């Protein structure tokens, strides 16, 4: 069971990036997926999640309208399109597979079965 993120980079404020999370070793459509981020000294926070049942999505308020989560079941890849990036988006971004997507103050997966290793996103001002 493996999740491998890619696509992180250094980008200027206002720029765009697309993160990818390639899944292998399990049945992709049996799981919900989420993107999370963490900066040193702070707790990991949920950015966006997508449900396996109907593809519905939830987002952290600060990224609504700028980030879009999607998945390609034929390729077993989950994406996070990030537009109009801001310096406060700088973080290590993780992909997770699990179950139980919940919204609220931040998106969460109630049960996480696997985390990826993370990909660094740095936004310069």
What's the quick description here?
The protein is built from no helices and eleven strands. It has 125 residues and is mainly β.
Task: Annotate the secondary structure layout.
Layout: E1 2-6, E2 10-12, E3 17-24, E4 32-38, E5 45-50, E6 57-59, E7 67-72, E8 77-82, E9 91-102, E10 108-115, E11 119-124
Parallel strand pairs: 2-11
Antiparallel strand pairs: 1-3, 3-8, 4-5, 4-9, 5-6, 7-8, 9-10, 9-11
Describe this structure in words.
By secondary structure, the chain is mostly beta strands. The protein contains no helices and eleven strands. The chain has strands spanning 2-6, 10-12, 17-24, 32-38, 45-50, 57-59, 67-72, 77-82, 91-102, 108-115, 119-124. Strands 2, 4, 5, 6, 9, 10 and 11 form a seven-stranded mixed beta sheet that branches. It has a four-stranded antiparallel beta sheet with strand order 1-3-8-7, with no helix packed on it. It is globular. It starts with a strand and ends with a strand.
Straight-line N-to-C gap: 37 Å
Radius of gyration: 13 Å
Task: Provide the structure class.
Answer: mainly beta
Q: Helix count?
A: 0
Share of helix, binned: under 10%
Strand content: over 45%
Q: Can you tell me the residue ranges where pLDDT is under 50 for at least 5 consecutive residues?
A: none
> What is the number of E strands?
11
Rounded mean pLDDT score: 97
- Indicate the overall shape: globular
Q: Give, in order, the helices and strands.
A: EEEEEEEEEEE
**Biggest beta sheet attributes:** 7 strands, mixed
């Amino acid at each position: 069971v493996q999740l491998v993120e890619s696509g992180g980079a250094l980008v200027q404020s206002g720029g765009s990036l697309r993160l990818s999370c390639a899944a292998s070793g399990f049945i992709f459509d049996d799981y919900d997926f989420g993107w999370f981020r963490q900066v040193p000294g702070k707790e990991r926070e949920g950015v966006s999640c997508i449900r396996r049942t109907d593809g519905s999505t939830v987002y952290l308020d600060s990224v609504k309208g700028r980030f879009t989560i999607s998945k390609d079941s034929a390729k077993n890849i989950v994406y996070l399109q990030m537009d109009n990036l801001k310096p406060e988006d700088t973080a290590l971004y993780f992909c997770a597979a699990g179950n139980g997507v919940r919204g609220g103050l931040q998106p969460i997966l109630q049960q996480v079965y696997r985390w990826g290793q993370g990909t660094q996103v740095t936004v310069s001002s």
